[in-house]
């Protein structure tokens, strides 16, 4: 790759997925490991920053770099090995979750962990160590990685696994692209015997009830996720719906394992193209419209309580892909998602307080999702032995400062509750208000590893600079 062409011809404005930030960077799209190495070595020798970008699905600035080198890995998208007997697959890191499941489903395998969209690359999924609706049961995606290759700032390609160079393995996964470029991944897939799941919807009359449902259902569930009507108040605060899904152990129909049986439909009612559906949503993306929609969904949830049905893996997993470009309905200023991870003992009161503060601030999230989690062994994990609450806020020119002020309040509440942050979603954190977090031993260990493998700081996104920049500089002076 001709990296010397570091000029205006490569300058592109890159947008955060939530459309809440953008930055112009010099974008390189190599198709080989050698091409990646050329960019990284050039950056090191010319004192440039490299920002890693996969599918660009982080809500904030995790894959942005203002006037820096942006390394897009999406052309490294080849599947290198597949064993349909054992379920072990080896891929380049630009392979997407969509490619992964479509390649393996016909042989009776499914990715062990998926996000709410099938668009992310494996590199991005590992950089953020994504979790799914089964996190309480199987952990994060990193726990299913057999080995990976990572290209470091000095151009060296290092193989890592839980037993080989494991200090890198447990810090690169979840390391939000700050240590090096993942180029190859060996992943253990999950055996499935049907292309469908048995799904049981349960109505939750309030947040206390939702916690009770999770406590009762967790031992028998393969997947469990809750939706919350964030507009509800009083005795119904936190009302919503829980979906439990379970694998079908045996299914004689191979048809359900075909890709065609999994694909999401292109049309609504067989008539309206889903590609334009966001335009019909747009008039409702305001407080009045979303309050009505949340009320309608809560009412429908009561009627559907206990109505068990079958649903495809893709249909259950990838709700964010049902309406293409749905984020456009939020308008030109975009949205943010605030996701709080809180230990079990503090979660219920913390989440009640979060919902009440949002309502009191006149900034009610339009979507709220509830999950249960377990701890994992990765150094910069966001997971806790507890629960998470993810909140989507519409941004406007008029409310942006208020949303950031509310986020600062929630940060303080989260830290006092022993909570954690998730950098795939973050757009609002600032180092000056999370010193307690930055001073944690594990964060300092992570910065020490970065200092060892990337001493000149080649890999630094705008997110890294925003949150860790000063701590990184201080660690170099210590």
Strand neighbour order, sheet with most strands: 17-12-14-13-19-20-18
Q: Give the strand tally.
A: 20
Query: Any idea of the CATH class of the largest domain?
Result: Alpha Beta
Question: Can you count the helices?
Answer: 15
Oligomeric category: single chain
In terms of DSSP E residues, the strand content is 15-25%
Structural overview:
This protein has 478 residues and is an alpha+beta fold. The chain folds into four domains: 8-73, Uridine Diphospho-n-acetylenolpyruvylglucosamine Reductase, domain 2 (2-Layer Sandwich), CATH 3.30.43; 79-191, Uridine Diphospho-n-acetylenolpyruvylglucosamine Reductase, domain 3, CATH 3.30.465; 196-430, Alpha-Beta Plaits; 432-458 and 463-477, no CATH class. 31% of the residues lie in helices and 23% in strands. It contains 15 helices and 20 strands. The chain has helices spanning 33-45, 97-104, 122-127, 135-138, 166-172, 207-217, 259-262, 277-281, 287-303, 313-317, 344-360, 400-416, 435-438, 441-453, 462-477; strands at 11-15, 22-28, 50-53, 69-72, 79-83, 88-92, 109-110, 145-151, 157-160, 181-188, 190-191, 196-204, 223-228, 240-247, 267-268, 272-273, 309-312, 335-343, 367-372, 386-394. The strands form five sheets. A seven-stranded antiparallel β-sheet has the order 17-12-14-13-19-20-18. A hairpin with a 6-residue loop joins strand 1 (11-15) and strand 2. It is globular.
Task: Offer a quick outline of the entry.
The chain has 478 residues and is an alpha+beta fold. It has helices spanning 33-45, 97-104, 122-127, 135-138, 166-172, 207-217, 259-262, 277-281, 287-303, 313-317, 344-360, 400-416, 435-438, 441-453, 462-477; strands at residues 11-15, 22-28, 50-53, 69-72, 79-83, 88-92, 109-110, 145-151, 157-160, 181-188, 190-191, 196-204, 223-228, 240-247, 267-268, 272-273, 309-312, 335-343, 367-372, 386-394. It folds into four domains: 8-73, 2-Layer Sandwich (Uridine Diphospho-n-acetylenolpyruvylglucosamine Reductase, domain 2), CATH 3.30.43; 79-191, 2-Layer Sandwich (Uridine Diphospho-n-acetylenolpyruvylglucosamine Reductase, domain 3), CATH 3.30.465.10; 196-430, Alpha-Beta Plaits, CATH 3.30.70.2520; 432-458 and 463-477, no CATH class.
